[in-house]
Amino acid sequence: MKIGIVASEAVPFAKTGGLADVVGALFNVYNKEGNETYLFLPLYKTIKNVPYDLKKEGGIQIRIGSQDIKGNIFSKEMENGKTLVLIEQDYYFGRDSLYGTSKGDYADNAERFGYFDIAVLKAIELMKIDIDVLHLNDWQTGLIPLFIRDKNLPIKTLFTIHNLGYQGNFTQGILDLLHIDRKYFNPEGLEFYGNVSFLKSGIVYSDYISTVSPTYAREIRTKEYGAGMDGILNARKNRLIGILNGIDYSVWNPETDKLIYENYSVETISGKEKNKIQLGSALHFEMGNKPLFGMVSRLAAQKGIDIFVEALKEFLNEDIRVVLLGTGSEELENALIALQKKFPTKLKALIKFDETVAHRIYAASDFFVMPSKYEPCGLGQLIALKYGAVPVVRETGGLKDTVDNYNEVTHCGNGITFIESSKEDLMKALERAKDIYKNKTLYKQIQRTGMQCDFSWERSAKQYIDLFKKLIGDKK
Ligand code: ADP
Asked: Fewest 10 Å CB contacts: which of 13, 40, 114, 405?
């Protein structure tokens, strides 16, 4: 099978968030079982700065408005049947960032990624790749299924939604710029409340749609979580599946992690305690034998930080410790800094992005808090489970699929969950965690159960490949 993955970012080439981790991991596993795998990315400035020794495949020319915009296709053959394909167009992709500056998104993102989508199909043609299936990711790739349909190309498509909140909605002018036939601009097509939606195009015109957890796949068909797309997602519900993300255990493993203070495993769990003590001294923060609640998160409304702040106002009066690492909304950052001022011996709010500190927090924490309003999959809780930081999470999306509330009757469970997105429910969950911590045998049992869970990529990749086989079987 020849599989093409198309995305706007992938590790190790370009990353702004979790999407890059997912795409990079899939590129490393699809080639198993002898599949030829191609990864298509824009040739960003950051990629150009690395001497990748690229091969020029040829030039392309794409009509944007009344101009022919030239570009180039580069490739790099990698190990075991993997090929990287890069679309070079310096005006669009030779910028300092992927999507925008601190002032906001680039104003021409529709044009940039519209160009990219057309260019990917041109690259396939130019390189004469007999692609069977394209795995498309998020709105930046959403026009590709439409172009494939329009040209009647023999390529099957899977469109994956990593976060329904990001839809790529733009004014109608983009239709003329990209020369998209107006016949597609209707409520059954890519029109979305008078605008053009790249995400909706992906949903409507792809052969299959997936999202990153089974629960989120159900939730996005409801009004509450559907972000306006629930109608169209319901119309295509027989072609919508949830496949859970995994994590890369070669990066996230407390037994081998070079960034943490002391390595440990489920058998050598006492090493975890040393991480807590050392993090405490590094932060000039007395941990004592208090339960430590960790959080590593974007500080965004999606993550439920607002109810966490409200709960902390009460919870910090108790005999506990909280270490939080995150950046994002200024309002939430300020609220956390203010709380730290009020409770300096109990809360450390580290307002920055720092990979090393993140690893150390997972390793040091007794509990890991994710009170998300919605969560397509979530990686934080998967990492926390592996590091023996018992997750305290809201039952939504991927959190619901991966964290089982400890049940006092059956004695099963790998974490603590709550249902309503409210300060009260979160507070009850935090109190419950604190009580469980007092019972060392019980706490260790839940911790051990979590550390033994397996959320590796191999399982998810198999589900994707089975789906591709099914799609190709559908090929007329
Ligand atoms: P999302 O992709 O919605 O932000 P996830 O839980 O899926 O949330 O993934 C977030 C990832 O980013 C996790 O690996 C987390 O450890 C990491 N992360 C988030 N904020 C920070 C930060 N301030 N510093 C370091 N890593 C962070």
From this structure: 405
Residues 227 and 358 in one domain: no
Q: What's the CA-to-centroid distance between 378 and ligand 1, angstroms?
A: 9
- Residue of 162, 298, 305 to test ligand 1 pocket, by largest number of atoms within 8 Å of CB: 298
pTM metric for this prediction: 0.93
Asked if 217 and 241 count as a contact pair (C-beta separation under 8 A), the reply is yes
> Using a 6 Å CB cutoff, which residues line ligand 1?
17-18, 296-298, 325-327, 353-355, 358, 378-380, 383
Q: Give the Å distance between the CA of 238 and the centre of ligand 1.
A: 32
Q: Are residues 225 and 164 in the same domain?
A: yes
User: Is 261 within a domain?
Assistant: no
Q: Does residue 226 belong to any structural domain of this protein?
A: yes
Is the residue at 348 inside a domain?
Answer: yes
Strands in 215-366 per DSSP E: 240-242, 292-299, 321-328, 347-350
Same-domain status, 74 and 172: yes
Q: Measured between alpha carbons, how far is 138 from 168 in angstroms, rounded to an integer?
A: 9
CATH number of the domain at 6, please: 3.40.50.2000
CA–centroid distance, residue 318 to ligand 1 (Å): 27
Cα 110 → chain centroid? 21
